[in-house]
Design brief:
The protein is an all-alpha fold and 177 residues long. The protein has helices at residues 8-24, 27-41, 45-52, 56-69, 71-75, 90-102, 116-127, 136-142, 155-165, 168-176. The protein has 2 domains: 8-79; 90-142, no CATH class.
């Protein structure tokens, strides 16, 4: 059994990180700080792993990294972003929203209706960022715009719809019976 004792400054630093993790709702940082505090109190690796629902190897790794990097390692844990960073900033997205609402003709395109290829070209020209046209429906949705696929209706369908909408078809059916 290994007995660890941390200095008072380190224990206070761990307690501050524990409070920060609780405020930020950062479960990973909370487990790290709590596990290290329990190690300083003399709890075993196995017991800490069971309480935090992690393996004992994970607790060993936390301790090893903490001994090498110190409190600075924990302070960096709550600033770590998750996932891929956005290609466009918030300001660029607002500008894109305004440009899309203005229409393609206002942005130097000849047609009167947006499509994903045009929006991808607009983003490339204005911001120098490439987006796949298939992703743009998600981006438009996040901006509060709707992406709608065009639906083509042939003239026969339009005549049929008008005929069914009129009262003449009802009178023809009533005469047949």
């Amino acid at each position: 059994m290994i007995t660890l004792s941390f200095s008072k400054a380190i224990v206070e630093g761990l307690q501050r990180e524990l409070v920060k993790a609780h405020k930020l709702n950062n479960l990973r940082l909370y487990k790290l700080a709590q596990g290290l505090l329990w190690l300083s109190e003399g709890k075993s690796f196995k017991e800490i792993g069971r309480l935090l629902q992690v393996s004992t190897k994970t607790v060993w790794n936390w301790l090893r990294r903490f001994l090498v990097k110190g409190l600075g390692w924990l302070r960096g844990q709550h600033y770590q972003g998750r996932g891929r960073k956005a290609k466009l900033t918030g300001e660029q997205k607002q500008e894109l929203y305004k440009r899309v609402v203005a229409g393609p003709e206002e942005n130097g395109f000849d047609c009167g209706v947006w499509n994903t290829a045009l929006i991808a070209e607009l983003i490339w020209r204005r911001f120098g960022v490439r987006y796949h046209p298939r992703y743009l429906s998600c981006l438009l949705k996040r901006l509060g715009l709707s992406y709608q696929k065009a639906r083509f209706i042939c003239s026969t369908h339009c005549r049929r719809a008008r005929w069914y909408g009129s009262s003449s078809w009802r009178s023809q059916i009533n005469r047949a019976f």
